[in-house]
Amino acid sequence: xxxxxxxxxxxxxxxxxxxxxxxxxxxxxxxxxxxxxxxxxxxxxxxxxxxxxxxxxxxxxx
Length: 62
Prior knowledge:
- It is a single chain.
- 29% of the residues lie in helices and 24% in strands.
- By secondary structure, the chain is of the alpha+beta class.
- A four-stranded antiparallel β-sheet has the order 1-2-3-4.
- This is DUF397 domain-containing protein.
C-alpha cells in the first residue's frame, strides 16, 4: 500500500490546497491532496530533488 504524506507546514496554516508525496519503489509520487483520485506524477529521485531545490530557490518551473 502506498503511504501518502502531506507537509507538516500545511497543518499549521489550515490550507487545503497542498500536494502529497509518496515514496514509490523506484521513484517519488506527487499528487493533489484535494483530488487524490485524479492520479499522480511519478518523478525519479533525482528529478524530485531538483524540483525541491528549484522551489527552495523560488525559481519558475522548467
